[in-house]
């Protein structure tokens, strides 16, 4: 059997779960939000990471429904944590191609915000260069609507794909996410340092916030903070974890 044959069952039985990885402000280490990351609690194979199923999911007819479930679940969680001691908490949610292609992205996101009661500023959707390149005009219109409503729009894995710099002019972004590969390399490689510095400068020039992904060491943390990177995400601050573990770790009472 393929992974895909099992996906209908997984949807029906609620086998997908969300983990949450903390995002912190580098100046003082304060928690500012989390990125929601999908996992599949497979009955035989155990807990599966996205690498094991995301390609199959994205090309199946379950991509958009699962994406909608991710969005809704993450927004509900954000509301709960905002009410439990983190009033400014921001939730990052990865969008998949199917959600964007369907043509009702802005409506879906806005309905989810109003159903869950999460303020627009409490949500940041993450898009990748691939998604952006494939659905130009339609995506831009939907993202403009969301941007005007106050939803954050982050460019994920920035600098790794084929997107040209001119995308920064055409897309209503609020944040760049420096890809983990550049962070991992920056202590050893002058090339990676140069790329990180360039992304931070683009952020300042385009008035975009910047978050660095994949921070694993104090040395990386220090370098990024010194260079003016505002926020970070990575194993140093916490791996992706179940909601209850996250809440206990950050003192978010139930
Ligand atoms: O931690 P990790 O293995 O969770 O994530 C691997 C990749 O899977 C990342 O590129 C991440 O953006 C992607 N990913 C994780 N969760 C989701 C999700 O809910 N939807 C989409 N579209 N991508 C996700
Ligand atoms: O959306 P994206 O591709 O950026 O998802 C982040 C991915 O990177 C997830 O698979 C997550 O588990 C992983 N990740 C997050 N922080 C770190 C880190 O500090 N080190 C490593 N090696 N992986 C990380
Ligand atoms: Na992401
Ligand atoms: Mn990313």
Automatic annotation (TrEMBL):
Name recorded for this polypeptide: Bifunctional diguanylate cyclase/phosphodiesterase
Residue stretches making up the EAL domain: 1-254
Domain of life: Bacteria
Source organism of this protein record: Methylobacterium tardum
């Amino acid at each position: 059997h393929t992974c895909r044959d099992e996906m209908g069952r997984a949807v029906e039985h609620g086998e997908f779960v969300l983990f949450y990885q903390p995002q912190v402000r580098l100046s003082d280490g304060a928690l500012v939000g989390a990125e929601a990351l999908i996992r599949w609690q497979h009955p035989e194979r155990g807990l599966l990471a996205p690498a094991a199923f995301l390609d199959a999911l994205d090309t199946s007819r379950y991509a958009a429904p699962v994406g909608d479930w991710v969005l809704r679940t993450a927004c509900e969680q954000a509301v709960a944590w905002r009410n439990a001691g983190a009033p400014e908490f921001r939730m990052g949610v990865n969008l998949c191609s199917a959600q964007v292609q369907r043509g009702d992205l802005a409506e879906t996101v806005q309905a989810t915000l109003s159903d869950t009661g999460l303020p627009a500023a409490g949500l940041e959707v993450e898009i990748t260069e691939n998604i952006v390149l494939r659905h130009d005009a339609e995506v831009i219109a939907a993202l403009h609507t969301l941007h005007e409503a106050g939803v954050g729009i982050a460019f994920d894995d920035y600098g790794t794909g084929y997107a040209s710099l001119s995308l920064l002019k055409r897309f209503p972004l609020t944040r760049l996410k420096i890809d983990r590969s550049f962070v991992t390399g920056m202590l050893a490689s002058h090339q990676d340092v140069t790329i990180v510095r360039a992304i931070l400068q683009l952020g300042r020039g385009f008035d975009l916030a910047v978050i660095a992904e994949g921070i694993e060491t104090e040395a990386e943390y220090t370098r990024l903070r010194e260079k003016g990177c505002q926020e970070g995400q990575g194993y140093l601050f916490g791996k992706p974890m179940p909601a209850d573990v996250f809440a206990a770790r950050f003192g978010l009472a139930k």
